[in-house]
Amino acid sequence: MGLKLKNVLPMFVFLLLASTAKAQSAALDVTSAKYGGKPGSDITQALEKAWTDACASTTPSKIVVPKGIFKFVGTTFKGPCKAAIEFQLQGTLQAPVDGSQLPKDDTWIGFDHVDGLTLSGGGTFDGQGAQSWKNNDCNKNRQCKSKHINLRFHVLTNSKILDVTSKDSKNFHVNLQKCEKVEINGFTVSAPKESMNTDGIHIGRSTGINITATTIGTGDDCISIGDGTKDLTVTNVTCGPGHGIAIGSLGRYPEEEPVSGINIKKCTLTDTTNGVRIKTWPASPIDSTASDIHFEDITMVNVGNPILIDQEYCPWNECKKGVPSKVKISNVSFKNIKGTCTDPVAVKLACSPGLPCENVELSDIDLKYTGDKGPITSVCSNVKPTITRVAQPLACATGAAAA
């Protein structure tokens, strides 16, 4: 009898714990009676309460915003939390059109110091930014007030962003800073080409980011890669409209960190002003590096400048062009890049006269110029690239080492 009881007790404890875990991991629906959110109304408080409960849970939990359109003034969801959280957005969250109604900082929705977040559900974060773009003079006024970013991830670790859409952000759509091991898959960015300063995904000081099967159409860089980014993989991304995929700009501010281990593969860029590029400011305040950067299997469709290294990047004339960039670029490859371009200079490698680029490779480059401003060509300075299977007009012949 005692032996049977001894065998039964562990099973009873197991079932009790399982039942408790199941109850704790039940979906936290913001439209439930507990939270009181309703379609068409502001659910900021409902979502904040649901996050507080989820963050306090010792077992994984799920926050659900069901189908429908919901108003959301904005907030930053803060951790650390006690267990993983899935934030499932099935409907649409709408930001206020008037930026003055948003949080005082430049973030509409933020996630700060969260480990094990999954953002999913097929829904849309709608920044309603059209009015802000019209009033944005940042192209000529560098003292302009920063607009709100749709989604900011700060110190996000071991997390996933899956099958959701960022639409019409007032500023950058996504900004990842100090993040580690984050997967972005099936993500969509949607904004017209006239939207200003609306980078699709910006990454800085982050490690182990993987972006795949993502579609980005916007008014600025589809993906922009800032200082301190390491071990980034971008695969099967469709970009356009926009300004292309860019490393930088780098070398503008003190205390910038090196960039390394960047792999951009199997992407298609359509009707973008640039293709794949690395851009650094002249007259950098400190020495820095950008290394082990690889662009491979890229298709260009009517792209302005398909292949570009620009170490004299100086918008708004806010720099000393005569002073060389101090960002050392090395171990860079452009492989199997094909398609059409709308500028006759299809390949431009303008490296720093103070720190010439090293170990740059061009191979299997096949680009056709669709305009009427002369023959297709390449322009290179302060670099001796290795050339493999590249037609002479694109071969960056001056100082090049043929392979």
UniProtKB/TrEMBL annotation:
Signal peptide: 1-23
InterPro entries registered for this protein in UniProt: Glyco_hydro_28, PbH1, Pectin_lyas_fold, Pectin_lyase_fold/virulence
Highest taxon of the lineage: Eukaryota
One Gene Ontology molecular-function label: polygalacturonase activity
Chief location of this protein within or outside the cell: secreted
Pfam family, one: Glyco_hydro_28
Positions annotated as active site in the UniProt record: H243
Protein location: Secreted, Cell wall
Keywords, in A-Z order: Cell wall, Cell wall biogenesis/degradation, Glycosidase, Hydrolase, Secreted, Signal
Record has Mitochondrion as a keyword: no
Gene3D superfamilies: Single-stranded right-handed beta-helix, Pectin lyase-like (2.160.20.10)
Gene Ontology biological process terms, A to Z: carbohydrate metabolic process; cell wall organization
Family: Belongs to the glycosyl hydrolase 28 family.
Protein name per UniProt: Exopolygalacturonase-like
The organism of origin for this protein: Prunus persica
